[in-house]
Predict the structure of Phenylalanine-4-hydroxylase.
Amino acid sequence: MSHFNDFNNPQVAALPGHLKQFIVDQHYEHYTPIDHAVWRYVMRQNYSYLKDVAYYPYIPGLQKAGLTIEHIPDLQEMNDALGKIGWGAVTVDGFIPPAAFMEYQAYRVLVIAADIRQLKHIEYTPAPDIIHESAGHAPIIADKDYHEYLSYFGSIGAKAMFSAQDFELYEAIRALSILKEMPDADEQEILKAEELVTYCQENMGEPSEMALLSRLHWWTVEYGLIGTLEQPKIYGAGLLSSIGESSTCMNKDVQKLWYTIDAVKYPYDITKPQPQLFVTPDFQNLISVLEEFANTMAFRKGGAYGLNKAVESKNTCTAVYSSGLQVSGNITDFKTDAAGKPYFIKTTGPTALALNNKQLRGHGKDYHKDGFSSPVGKLKGYHDTSLEDFSEYDLKAAGIIKGLGTELHFESGITVKGIVKNILSEAGKICLVTFDNVTVTDDNGTVLFDPAWGVYDMAVGEEIISVFCGAADREAYETIVYKSKTETYHARHDHKTKELHRLYQQVRNCRTNHGDYGFLGNVWQQLQKDHHDDWLCALEILEILDHEGVDPVLAAEIKHFLEEKGRSEPEYGKLISDGFYLIKHPVEQKLVV
């Protein structure tokens, strides 16, 4: 059965089309008995260990998010549970572009990678998976201050300037994470992919707003600690979902620093444990730091600073005039006066005009397909009043009358001479004046618009108050059409692996139905004969024998096998000893919604 994303959840239903393109079916039936065993092992470890080191809402938060220990979460159940706290969830195919990820957060929708890590990556995987997304992110969302921060972060991140280098790094990280989750990945290929990620990280140039915001996201949402430097608690999803690093991160050699705006100076490496972590005293501090950073961003600063960021970005960006008019396109040029204030802006290629994030009728990118240009600023002789604030009387006095010719002289030296075709106002502000047979020139006599080019739409506004990445009306403009062509790997199971799945399922059935414990001896024999490398199924058999008090001879044999495996293959040592601990100290309260 394919579990499609639940559009009955109001948050999910409200998603615009350009975000829905990333959604994939969960395909719950594709999860194998080994996948469920991996989920169960990690969740039992989390419950046992994290109840002492995780931020206090973690355990009740698991329940509020619709998660249980025994099986991988079903998206429908999660949506039903998250809907009660004003959030939703969708499944996607691995890493999605950062700008899209941020927008999902702004819509209060949790993005969950549908895949689950392999058994050999049970402690940590660089690839996003359902353990990381659901058992890491979802439980803390139940905290009101935290989910306010998360959605606020998304709304700011959705306006962040990003660069071509950001996309190159995203693709390199996505390719590496996919490779690392392939069962038979070539070690040389992984090495090459890691080198490419390192190269991209070291050759980003001046980090974009998105790159800097990604650092704040990493050191809070993914790897954040809360409380005191001496005894912090974990709330970051990357730590909560890593049974390895959630333990080692508390060691003294991992430096703990107070979380301030300085965190933007610390890049991160997704393939290695983090050398330092940041501690916030409370979630309100996260919002304060984010606000401090947002004040440095183009969407708040506007002006020449913002326009320069847009030109550097080479992506679709939006310039907002003080009248409220929004110009969305590839901003390629602008001119400034002696004081550094923009007095002319120009886009190249498809451009759209909007008000209040809604595209103006007849002003889409098909109409303005060859670009757009317009003056910014005041008319000469009107020092006290901006054109956007002109009354009917002011318009007539200035000769701006529909159907009549006029000549407008801007303080910058730009002259607009033509016949007024239309005047558009919104909320008492003049936003756009349309001309026929118009000539636009600057103070050097350079022609900026020629009558042969057709109708001229002149944006109105004294200044550019905001510049942000993406289009104002994203749905009409289809701003996030970028989608990776690299698909995640989906294993095809051979006969031997399918047989191992059956053995895991038989153990699960035995535990669930409390019966036929004698059959476990046969499963153990089969494991020894054909699957000698397995340790998790053996551990699950030992757990049942121990808890039910049956066949102590068989239990001793399996325990000896696991002890030897832990000694001879150190990579399994901690996993096996942690498993022994859980058998002796079982999770008392199963997570049942």
Notes: The mean pLDDT is 89. The radius of gyration is 29 Å.
